[in-house]
Amino acid sequence: MNSHMMFIKAVCGLFFLLCTVDCSLTVVGNLAVVGKPKTFVGTASKPVLAQIGKLWCGAQILGEKTPITYGQFTRLRDGKVFEGGLSEFTTFLDIKEAPATVAGKYKCEIRTSDEQIATGFCFIYLPPILVLPTETQYEEKPDSKVATIDAAPLLASAGDTVRFSCPVYGFPPPYVTWEKDGTTLGSNVSYEGDDIIVNISQESEGTYTCTADNSFPMFVDGPAMPHKLVYNQKLVVMNKL
To answer: Which CB contacts under 8 angstroms, 24+ apart, belong to 4-10?
Structure first.
């Protein structure tokens, strides 16, 4: 097989390598950084900000560093391309403080001084955060061991239909579960994605809680650590007998 046409999917340093010219070329880098949000809830008009570490990648040929002349990072979620900064042997993306929603999977592409091109993948991890509509009233519990947000009570009448949302973001994408007053939901509740739809009866009053979980290592080769967010939404039925 012509090495110029060879596609290999193998671990090279900390990356998967797309080999386009010389398959002795490998990509190395720091694989992942962890986004550290300043808060765990925000809105479209006031997004959650996070401190983001520096992503970097470089090239080696037979274990020796090789100079690079260009590098870029592509966020796979939306295809946005960021030109990387350059040192002699690495390209880097130094985001620092930014909206927490920059978290996700990125593709790093580098070009070496002898015009070889290689590609690797890296990640910005993020614990679950809540992204609410701008007009939402809420209270964040800063002293809770688990990130906890309480919404303002919602008033409804028997016979109404109410949708409860759990608009969370994180990377890896959080897994969402629901409870009412600490127990499983009743038969008057249906699911639509991560939302629930409640057909209101007198028994519907209570606190509806969504819990969002994800896990990731805090350092390379470390164990996956769990991260959790709790969002409580209290329902008050107005015309109870």
So the answer is: none
DSSP SS3 for 101:
helix
Q: Residue 238: helix, strand or coil by DSSP?
A: coil
Exposure string for 10-43, b = 16+ CB within 10 A, e = fewer: eebbbbebbbbeeeebbbbbbbbbbbebebbbbb
Greatest Cα pair distance in the chain: 80
Burial degree of 133 (CB within 10 A; 0-12, 13-18, 19+) = exposed
Q: Which domains does the chain have, with CATH numbers?
A: 3-126 (2.60.40.10), 137-237 (2.60.40.10)
107-148 pLDDT, tens digit each? 999 999 989 898 999 999 999 999 999 999 999 998 888 999
Residues 6+ apart with CB under 8 A from 32: 122, 123, 124, 125, 216, 217, 220
Digit-coded pLDDT (tens) for 5-57: 222 222 233 343 444 445 578 888 888 999 999 999 999 899 999 999 999 99
Query: What is the residue type of 66?
Result: T
Which amino acid does the sequence have at 33? V
Reported pTM? 0.84
